């Protein structure tokens, strides 16, 4: 497991785990038009599902990080996938909004475990020179989940019904849990740290990254939750085409996370989050302009994936570069908690505007959230450079 080239099977498993950790929320976004029509879910309640899921994940993340550091990545990955299967099954069986919200809350558990468990596995099994590439690949699993929700599963809902599509996802998560049990070694000892970015006990980078992640997550979550509904309700798209917007975001996010994570070498990585946040602001502007020129919505969705979604992957690369191996789970959880807190706050704010038809103001809010994330990232990068210059 400590080969120069990590086993492809492990990388694929970690990518799959990340995909299922948030699958339920991507499905709710992609199936939003059907849920509004057939389950009596309002636009505001659709945003509340995201708040419940990510609010639960934000609260549980610090505990999840400590649990992963204690029990190891194998058990954590199996639990993540098994609980994802259960949460998806309950969503598919939900007779109304009450059980739907309870199932989404349960889905906060795999979200809380995902980054600590996968990052811990990378530190233990992947050589330092390959960690950035593997981190970007496994983080792209979240967007793989968005693609699966937005295209094949949303399309399957036209044949199987929305419940049938969710149950297909639940069965796949259960199979992945069995795969994790057989694929991951019971004991994984930490590998050496990367020479170019020595791990330290300084927690300040992690705190800055958590603050950056709050505002980044608020903007991304609003796009994830309301993009398909925006396409169907304001741009005149059918449900399947509107769901494909989420798939486009997912594919672009995969490319962005892999590409930018490979570029996040120790000297350059601190500057990337601010630049990616600036690109995300431009993406939000494109989404707003789509009401006047509909094709711009496709460019805006792709740009959110390339820039905003990639920002989260780069922040996880920075965590691996700056964390001591024994604290990787807890540090990953702290940054993830910030991200999830943003995901919990963003959609309800956007939803109050969407319910009144004020999507233009909603996209302006998203642009402002991305701009604040960029300001936080740039401030930290400047302070980090001055600190390193003093030490040198």
Automatic annotation (TrEMBL):
Q: Is the keyword tRNA processing assigned to this protein?
A: no
**Which domain of life does the protein's organism represent?**
Bacteria
Q: Which Pfam families match?
A: MFS_1
Q: Describe the location of the Major facilitator superfamily (MFS) profile domain by residue ranges.
A: 10-386
| Xref: PROSITE patterns | MFS
InterPro entries membership: MFS, MFS_dom, MFS_Efflux_Transporters, MFS_trans_sf
One MF term in GO for this entry? transmembrane transporter activity
Q: Where in the cell is it found?
A: Cell membrane
GO CC annotations, alphabetized: plasma membrane
Q: Where are the transmembrane segments?
A: 12-32, 44-64, 76-94, 160-181, 206-228, 240-259, 271-290, 296-320, 332-350, 362-382
Entry membrane topology: Multi-pass membrane protein
- Main subcellular localisation: membrane
- Keywords (A to Z) from UniProt: Cell membrane, Membrane, Transmembrane, Transmembrane helix
Quote the PANTHER family the UniProt record gives. CHLORAMPHENICOL EFFLUX PUMP RV0191 (PTHR43124:SF3), PURINE EFFLUX PUMP PBUE (PTHR43124)
- For this entry, the protein name equals Arabinose ABC transporter permease
To which species is this protein native? Streptomyces showdoensis
């Amino acid at each position: 497991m400590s080969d120069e080239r990590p086993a492809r099977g492990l990388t694929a498993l970690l990518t799959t785990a990340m995909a299922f950790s948030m699958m339920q929320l991507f499905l709710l976004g992609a199936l939003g038009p059907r849920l509004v029509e057939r389950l009596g879910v309002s636009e505001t309640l659709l945003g509340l599902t995201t708040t419940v899921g990510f609010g639960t994940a934000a609260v549980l993340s610090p505990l999840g990080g400590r649990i992963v550091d204690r029990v190891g990545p194998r058990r954590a990955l199996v639990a993540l996938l098994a609980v994802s299967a259960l949460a998806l099954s309950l969503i598919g069986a939900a007779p109304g909004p009450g059980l739907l919200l309870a199932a989404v809350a349960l889905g906060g558990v795999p979200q809380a475990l995902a980054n600590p468990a996968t990052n811990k596995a990378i530190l233990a099994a992947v050589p330092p020179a390959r960690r950035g590439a593997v981190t970007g690949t496994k983080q792209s699993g979240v967007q793989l989940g968005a693609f699966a929700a937005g295209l094949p599963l949303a399309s399957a809902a036209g044949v199987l019904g929305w419940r049938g599509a969710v149950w297909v996802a639940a069965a796949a998560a259960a199979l992945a849990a069995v795969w994790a049990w057989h694929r991951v070694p019971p004991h994984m000892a930490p590998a050496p740290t990367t020479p170019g970015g020595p791990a330290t006990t300084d927690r300040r980078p992690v705190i800055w990254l958590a603050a950056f992640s709050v505002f980044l997550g608020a903007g991304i979550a609003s796009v994830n939750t309301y993009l398909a509904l925006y396409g169907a309700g304001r741009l005149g798209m059918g449900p399947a085409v509107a769901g494909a917007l989420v798939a486009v975001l997912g594919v672009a996010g995969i490319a962005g996370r892999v590409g930018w994570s490979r570029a996040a070498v120790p000297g350059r990585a601190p500057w990337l989050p601010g630049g990616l946040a600036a690109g995300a602001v431009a993406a939000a502007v494109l989404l707003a302009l789509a009401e006047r020129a509909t094709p711009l919505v496709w460019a805006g969705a792709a740009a959110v994936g390339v820039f905003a979604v990639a920002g989260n992957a780069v922040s996880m690369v920075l965590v691996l570069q700056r964390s001591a191996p024994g604290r990787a789970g807890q540090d990953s959880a702290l940054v993830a908690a910030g991200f999830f807190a943003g995901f919990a706050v963003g959609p309800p704010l956007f939803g109050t505007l969407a319910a009144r038809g004020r999507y233009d103001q909603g996209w302006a809010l998203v642009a402002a959230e991305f701009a604040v994330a960029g300001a936080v990232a740039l401030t930290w990068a400047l302070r980090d450079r001055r600190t390193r210059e003093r030490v040198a």
